[in-house]
Amino acid sequence: MAAVATCYVSTFSGMAEVSKFAFVLLEVEAEATLEKDENDRRFTEVRLCPALKIAREQDRERADRLLVKAERSCLVARSISSKVTLESSVSVVPESVVSEALS
Fold first, then answer.
1. Which residues, including other chains, have CB under 8 Å from residue 32's CB and lie 6 or more apart?
2. Where are the alpha helices (DSSP H) in 48-102?
3. 103 CB contacts (<8 Å, ≥6 apart)?
4. Shortest CA distance to 22 belongs to which of 65, 81, 63, 68?
């Protein structure tokens, strides 16, 4: 799951940079469903749960579009046979508040 989450973050960050989209913070959790079939165990679903923090409300729609586009473009997510679902959230947080919290 770490590979999917890392790829997603890299893909989103690269897309945001190319499209000059500024964001405050991106945190991603990945969860998976492991099932046993007749031969072995395998992941049947991966849930990516990115939490994106932006500084301006007017960027919310663009943020949502980039989150979805990053999931569709993530090489690792596209390469696995498991179903990948995206459960994203976008919140507006002034950058100064996040900087203080990370200090």
1. 1, 43, 45, 46, 47, 82
2. 60-73, 75-79, 95-102
3. none
4. 63
* CA 59 to mean position of chain CA atoms: 17
Tokens of 85: 């679902």
Measured distance CA(4)–CA(16) in Å, rounded: 18
Containing H/E element for 102?
A: helix 95-102
Spell out the domain ranges in the chain. Answer: 2-44+53-82
Q: Walk along the chain (103 residues) and give the pLDDT tens digit of each residue.
A: 789 999 999 999 999 999 999 999 999 999 999 888 888 888 889 999 999 999 999 999 999 999 999 999 999 998 888 899 999 999 998 766 656 655 5
Contact of 74 with 3, CB cutoff 8 Å: no
